[in-house]
Amino acid sequence: MSDSSPRRIKNKTKQLEKHLLNLVAGERQTATRLISHAKRQNPGKSQQWYLEKVIWDLERDRGY
């Protein structure tokens, strides 16, 4: 099975969603807003890309 199989992508996306929610203290509205902003700034990417971008930006800004 390749790393880009639909099941692995879905599992990775779920893991990223959980990580993002942990970073924003469970605030779904905040997570949604951050993803929406990333989509406006970088159109045409995958959902996984947006999640990774938002997480990376938060961790960078927090000095993790």
Treating each run of at least 4 consecutive H or I residues as one helix, how many helices? 3
Structural class: mainly alpha
Along the chain, the helix and strand elements come as HHH
Proportion of residues in extended strands = under 5%
Poorly predicted runs of 5 or more residues: none
Inertia-based shape: globular
> Helix proportion of residues, in percent?
over 70%
Main beta sheet: none
Computed CA radius of gyration, to the nearest angstrom: 12 Å
Give the structure's gist in a few sentences.
With 64 residues, the protein is mainly α.
Describe the protein's architecture and organization.
The chain has 64 residues and is mostly helical. The chain is 75% helix and 0% strand. It starts with 5 loop residues before the first helix and ends with a helix.
Short descriptors:
3 helices, mainly alpha, 64 residues, single chain
